[in-house]
Model the fold of this input.
Amino acid sequence: MRKPKIVEIEITGLAHKGAAVGRTDEGLVVFVRDAVPGDRVKASLDKKRKGTWHARLEEIIRYSTHRNKAICQHFGICGGCSWQNLDYAEQLQQKEKMVKDALIRIGKVADFLIEPILPAPQTELYRNKLEYTFSNNRWLTKDEMDQVKNPEDLLALGFHRPGIYYKIVDIQKCHLQIDSTNQIRNFIKKLSIQEKLSFYDIKNQTGFLRNLIIKSNTQNEIMCILVLSENDEQIISMFVEQLRANFKEIISIYKVINAKKNDSYLDLTFDKVYGEDYLTENLDHAKFLIGPKSFFQTNPKQAAALYRLIAEYADLKGDEVIYDWYCGVGSIGIFLAKNAGTVIGVEEVAEAIEDAKLNAKANALDNCHFYVTDAKDIDIENIIEKHGAPDLIVVDPPRAGMHPNVIEQIIQMHPPKLIYVSCNPATQARDIQLLSTHYKVEKIKPLDMFPHTNHVESVALLSYLK
Done:
């Protein structure tokens, strides 16, 4: 076997899934894990994918001045946070650069205003939802392997180890959600062991306990969802009794019975076994009811800032017709509705549209109309005939960006304003380039929705070229 080539790399930026990117002195672009911008490293060239080298870190020659000590004991193992070892100011600078570079390089946009990135109001405890997996196959460090004395030591309730689907990292303390959720998770694991309940065996697809989903709101109220392989009423009642007795902040408990061979559960029935149907979340003037299946922004405090920015870019006068494509649970449209004439939301997930209608009712809005359909399949003529031509279209597509049919529809309807909300700068820039014959980018602002990760949100305001 040929020995991998060792190269020196100056690390300059962030890349996908926790990797950093840099160049050799000869100009070769290389992706490296475990390095941060500002490091100079030695790395062994490992694999070449799509014309770009990926390398394994061998030695840090010069440590970056932007390096931080990670706050979490699980950092580098669970994969939940990529950049706790990079100071937050540098994270923001790198994310802003991602958006700007994508718009210039992919979008071919030369003249636009990029506003400074909006930092998250808090860099810890910002998520309102986490999903954990029960497993009898805990991921172990080399030191922990020597300490295993009995099968209980192999039980885990935590996150999948990146790259090893059947290994679960047992989480002691996660810094992403309010601390009471750590106490609840650890309590459930301890109780499950005491009751000698079987944790799921991912390889053999056996075991009673499968998943735990914990949702919270900004009032620190909790919803717990237990995903089990069978409906054992006695055990479920025991969980409800113990959780109610020990955690007053839990206001809702659901069960899901998943006897399938995979972990997907959104197609299954969620049965309430205690408390409220929903968590309530207030974002400024708008109220949202979050159910067990609801798709909702996972950083609610920054979501409020995102919606304020969209409202600022929209600059509504009170009578506008707004089309909200890829609307999810209708949160953007509902936030804008009090200052608009009509809001039309479209989303292909039926459960999300049910939530959107529920949320519109909770806000006493009668000017919001929601439809279940894929954005690319919208009957434009029918929508316009029924509700009028749009003065503004807001799009918030998934990471893959907009379907070409949607771009054609926008051009055909040519609203004066288009607001493009994106979680992927590359596909946003690609779509903006496709729109460029009819639309000009006025300004764009990045937002950090997920500190310590490589993800960045951005909002672009485009105007129609008359």
In short: The first strand starts at residue 6 and ends at 14. The chain has three domains: 6-67, 89-123+299-464, 129-282.
